[in-house]
Amino acid sequence: MDNPPENNITAASSTGKQAQPPRQGLAYEKYTLPCRIEHGELLIDVEREGEQGAAGESFVYSRKHGSETAEKMLRATEGYLLFNPVEPINKPKEITPFFLIQFRQTLTVKPREIYEIMVTFPVDIACMFVAGEQDYTVLDIFSLTEPKYSLYGTPKSGLICRYWESRVYPAAPPSPDPLQEGVMRISIRNTTSRWVEVTQAVFSANEMKIYYNQGKAYTETYMKILSDTSAETGFSITPPPLHLNLEKSLELLAARKMIMSEPKLLMEEGL
Amino acid sequence: MIFNMIVYGEVTLLNIMVALLLFVGSLVIAKIIAINIRRSFRERIAREHLELIVKVLSYFIIVIGIIWALPHIGVEPSGLMVAGGIVGLAIGFASQSIVGNLVSGLFLILERPIKIGDTVEIDDILGIVEDIRIISTTLRTFDGLYIRIPNETVFTSNITNFVVHVARRFEYSVGIRYSDDADKAIGIIKKTIESHPLALHNPPAQVFVDELGDNSVNIIVRIWAPSLEWLGVKMELLWKIKTAIEAEGIEIPFPQRVHWFAEKPPAQTDA
What is the C-alpha separation between B179 and B249, in angstroms, rounded? Predict the structure, then answer.
């Protein structure tokens, strides 16, 4: 990862703890340490503990968001914070790798037709401490949206999913807040010889690939309709076009799992 | 012919070859069955249990082969069986519970009504399955006790598996005063449920007036939650519902009784 740009540098104390002037607004970018970020109800504070260069020097990371708090001590001398949009399945705790997008309008797809639609999807935010090239750790994960879960299918054979509602857009949705929701392009292909109505899409976040810049979180997916009630969904493995100027975000689930998981999901409990 | 050559007693070379063939055949059949069982049940049965089943079946087939081969080499198994029958009867009586548990264990492993880690109730004992062995099953109760249950008891008891389905429902009864607005109370309760991330969006919660009770109007609240999280949701939500409806001026009444006097009670006078 690159060195942080100068304009992100907050004056670093070289002699122990010193309060930093708060920086208004959080963005998907790098923050040199120590730093203090305010974004609505969210307050992130990283302070240096101990003399700079002395033994025992460390940083204390703390976050307050409503009633939720997190605090970590970091034994490091150099590095910076980086915020990334990540898979929306971490809050309030990781209970499922699946998420469901409920369309506010029913989409009716012509036989043997390919449509491209845009919807929004929720994002969680990972706060990483980056010490160097490929040398980082995830300090904290939080969400600026209220998570909600739902059951796709029946209690016997269904899936617990993170739930999200979205309008269906023919083109990019009008400026969603990238800290709360990303833009998902879904390529829908109806392989049947009948008209099919689609009201929801379920994805497995195991192979989710999110791309981002300061103003956008983005992912590309597909849905292959197999029958009136079933479809296959997954994430595109090709990166988005270069002109979008997006960087690839950290894949939290893929990093945690040593074994390869199934990249596709079969929606068998209805569309 | 050489095959009719007497080797000993009335046993010819052909008899010995047939006996050998039966013995080797039983070994080959046992091996083929072992390979197929391993291949078919590799995903469904734990490795140690699968090996035990394979061994028991292999030895059984080999013993059948030996019993079949013995008459060809001049040994009558019926004689051995009479001798062994009495011993077998004694051993059988002594070990009938062990055999019962063993057979039940095999069926439990094949049928798999419970898995390690499931929260279950067996024979009125509630706990988490720690291990399923060939003779017994062990549970860890919620107060930390280790309980070993013979597999025969497990197999013949009613088993309630609380986590076999991905979602489950729980229920509260909330009483409000007759003078309170039940529709308003229902609205507040629904809103409180909606604000909890793990109270599932679908299946939707059911909130309705169930009974005009002696002391209160009783509202039934039915909520679905992920099976692994339902207890935490249940513990959190009841108090949230209570505080939310009280914050809106709706009270949960105490038991009360209206007394009617046949005659007007005497007026109280100050002493």
Answer: 11
